[in-house]
Specification:
The chain is an alpha+beta fold. The chain has 5 helices and 6 strands. The chain has a 3-stranded antiparallel beta sheet, with no helix packed on it. A 3-stranded mixed beta sheet has the order 5-4-6. The model has no long low-confidence stretch (mean pLDDT about 85).
């Protein structure tokens, strides 16, 4: 806490008291540089983090909704609940780190799909099919083809690198 008088960053708490309404804590502090005293108040952050929906509505961010969507996408897949929990934590941190206290569903959805793509392609496709709201089989097929071509490129690169290593070790 910076001293309001001299701007020094070190102080000590002299007294702490709960407010009468029990909704905040009052702290008396003393600056360690200029020895002047000042008062601070701590309150629970009550302004909710919001999610801007595609249709323009705004909703309070709910961690549970993210978890439910990921659990459906990852159902019967070899993804541990710990990994799912870590992804939910990452999404929550992404939302709460926003200076505007708001993120769009597009930003959140893209973050989730990016992470799912590297975790499990089936879970990724499941999530993408709901998130992107494919209108027909053609859109679904296009997404699969992109995923397969990307997967094929990664496989070919891995095979090239393995071949180069074998060539070097034989030399």
């Amino acid at each position: 806490m910076k001293c309001p008088f001299c701007g020094f960053g070190q102080d000590r708490v002299i007294d702490s008291r709960e407010s009468r309404e029990a909704d905040s804590i009052r702290r008396r502090r003393e600056c360690e540089k200029c020895n002047r005293r000042f008062t601070t108040y701590e309150r629970i952050d009550e302004i909710p983090y919001m999610v801007a929906k595609k249709d323009g509505r705004r909703e309070k961010f709910e961690r549970r909704k993210v978890l439910d969507g990921l659990m459906r996408a990852c159902q019967k897949r070899p993804i541990s609940t710990i990994k799912v929990g870590q992804l939910v934590d990452e999404v929550e941190a992404f939302v709460t780190e926003s200076s505007e206290r708001e993120r769009t569903t597009a930003e959140i959805g893209e973050l989730i799909m990016d992470r799912l793509k590297s975790l499990d392609t089936v879970a990724y496709i499941r999530f993408a099919s709901v998130y992107r709201d494919f209108k027909d089989v053609r859109e679904f097929k296009e997404e699969l083809e992109q995923l397969l071509s990307h997967h094929g490129e990664k496989r070919a690169k891995g095979e090239r690198e393995a071949g180069e290593k074998r060539t070097k070790s034989q030399s």
